[in-house]
Amino acid sequence: MKDERGLTIHFMDGTNLRLRFPKQAPNEHAAVLKLKEILNARQLLVEAEGALLIIPFENIKYIQSYPAPKKLPETTVVAASVS
């Protein structure tokens, strides 16, 4: 599916959670605003399979999101590689 998105949340204890979901924002500008709201909230809210997951950022080591949006916050390092 073209508009499918995904997250892999890597937790501090070494476990991870993989999520797949449809596109959430109508355009790239809205996606950047939503990202900023999530970062300010310091928790990730996810509705999955009829349940609400509330994931505090303090439990998260990092989040891998794909595909990366075309428009990113200005402070984003781009064209990096993981080694």
Largest sheet: 3 strands, antiparallel
Whole-number mean pLDDT: 91
| Total count of domains | 1
Give the proportion of residues in helices: 10-25%
Low-confidence stretches: none
Describe this structure in words.
There is one protein chain. A 3-stranded antiparallel sheet has the order 2-1-5, with no helix packed on it. Strands 3-4 form a two-stranded antiparallel sheet. Strand 1 and strand 2 form a beta hairpin. The protein has a single domain, classed as SH3 type barrels, CATH 2.30.30. The longest helix has 14 residues. The protein has 83 residues and is an alpha+beta fold.
List the helices and strands and how they pair.
Elements: E1 4-11, E2 16-22, H1 28-41, E3 43-48, E4 51-56, E5 60-66
Antiparallel strand pairs: 1-2, 1-5, 3-4
Short description:
The chain has 83 residues and is an alpha+beta fold. Helix content is 17%, strand content 41%.
Primary descriptors:
single chain; 83 residues; alpha+beta; SH3 type barrels; three-stranded antiparallel β-sheet; two-stranded antiparallel sheet; 1 helix; 5 strands; globular
